[in-house]
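User: C-alpha cells for Eukaryotic translation initiation factor 4E-1, please.
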Amino acid sequence: MAAATMSATANENVKPASPVDLSTIPISPVGDKADDKKKPVTEGGDVTVFHDKDKFNVKHPLMNKWTLWFTKPPSGKGDNWNDLLKEVITFNSVEEFWGVYNNIAPTSELALKSDYHLFKEGVRPEWEDQQNKHGGKWSYQFKEKRNVPIDELWLHVMLSAIGETLEEEEDGEVMGVVVNVRKGFYRIGVWTRTIGKSIPGGGDGDVAGGKGRSLEKGKEVLMSIGRKFKEVLKLPEGEAVEFSGHTDSAHSGSTRAKAKYSV
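Assistant: Done. Predicted C-alpha cells:
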C-alpha cells in the first residue's frame, strides 16, 4: 500500500460509514490511488472512498493482510493466556481498516489490563510464535495517562504499520504493533522479527529473518524503525524509545527487560 494513499486517507479522516458491506466490494488494481479524487467519476465506473465515503465500489489494497487481536482483562481466577487472547478480524484494505476501527472501543475506554494487538496475518502476538521468537520490540511507556492522547497515538501507530512506513519494503522486520492499558500507564510497542541478527535457518534474503545481513546492517535496520516509531509518537528529543529482545523479556519474567538499544 503506497504511503501516500494511507496518509491521504488518514489526514482527510475518511471513514466509510456503516452499513457498507465491505465483503461485496472488489479490491481495486494495485497502485498508488492518492490522486483518485482528482479523477472524474464516469457513469458505471469506479467510485473510490475519496469520491464518496458511503457509496464507493472499489477498495484500496494494503501490502499485507493484518489481524486485530484483543486481550481481555484476567478475572483473577488463574486465567490461561490463550483464553484471554481473542482474534477479532483480518482485513486487507484501507476501507476495511476504517470499518474495523469505527466499530471497536477506543483505547482510552478499555478496562485495565486490556491490550490491542495488530499483527500481520498468520503471526500470533506471542513471544513463542515461530515468527516472533527470535525478535524483540521497540516500546515507550506513557506514565501521565490523563495528559496522553492515546487514541490518536495508537491510531497513527496502526496506520504507520499497515501503511508500511515504519521500515523499508525490503526490511521485512515489523511483525505487529501493540498497545497495553495498565493502572499507571499506557505502553505502545512495535514488534520485530529479529534483534539485529540473522535467524538460524532463516529463509533466503534479508526479508526472511535478516539472513545475509551483517550485524551492523541488522542494527541499522532496527535503529531506523526505532527512530520512525519515535517520530510517530511525537516524542521530544529528551525522551527515548527502547528496544529489548523477547528472549530477554521471557528470562526476566517481565515485558520490561533491560534495553538492548534506545533512540
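User: Anything notable?

Assistant: The beta strands are 61-71, 85-93, 114-120, 136-142, 174-181, 186-192, 242-245, 261-262.
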